[in-house]
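Final report, closing paragraph on structural work. Over the funding period we assembled a curated collection of sequence-structure pairs, and we close with a single example.
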Amino acid sequence: MKKLCLLVILLSSLMCHKAYAWEFRPFNDWDKTEKALFASNCVLRTVDMLQTNDIYAREDEGYYEMNPLIDAGVNKFGTKFIPVWFIAGAVAEYLIVDAMPHPWRKAALGVFNTVSIGLIYNNYQKGLGLNFSF
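Its predicted structure, as stored:
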């Protein structure tokens, strides 16, 4: 799990780096702000993924997942479903945002980041903090 999280962070930062822009052609028409917003969203999603994993590791302490889709996936496939869910979500967000014109793209990325910050803060307030169990 630790290696997967580091890989997600590394790939998200590489996708927005100038030296690798030719490998990721769809990012060529993104400006620096859009790339930074997407990279920060990937980092925030990784933190949320780690907190979600921590929820399932600490179920005996009374923590539970409120998203029924994640809960159903974990019940069917186990906790290995969690990174798949978050990576698929990041890909879906990218595809949606990439199809938008520039002003809307920044607004959507800002909304995605705000929602992610809210989810992380909510988990933090419930006592999960930023101590992750791997």
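Residues 9 and 43 are 6 Å apart (CA to CA). Residues 18-22 have pLDDT under 50 and may be disordered. We thank the funder for supporting this effort.
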